[in-house]
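User: Could you check the structure of this?
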Amino acid sequence: MSDSNEYKMIFGWEDDNDLGEMLIQQILRGEKTATCAPKEEYSAEELKETYQSVKKTLTVYDKEGNARCKVRVKEVFETTFGNPDLRLVRGEGNGENVKQFQENHKSDWHGIHELNDDSILIVELFELVT
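Assistant: Sure, the predicted structure tokens are below.
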């Protein structure tokens, strides 16, 4: 998460079919106010940094390394993929539709993260700053 003590979020990866750009556009429109990733993907240091990012302003970067906006982290917590906290589901733009949230993430992360009901997700709730 941090290089040179800078807190940041990166959306997108090679061959993501422009998913990263779509997510950044949702942030800019105020539709996306949460993000998550499987806990198993974090190193101990990354997990520590993520929890320390609460109340900090992070720069959001696209996959090419371009700064796109800033967000302030409001909360970091864990939830399961099988019974996700509704704050995450709403923040990902799925309203109260848990099934849609799960289907979107299984599809988006296919071949990258294999999720099951017991998978632990690290959630970051945030608000757009600029």
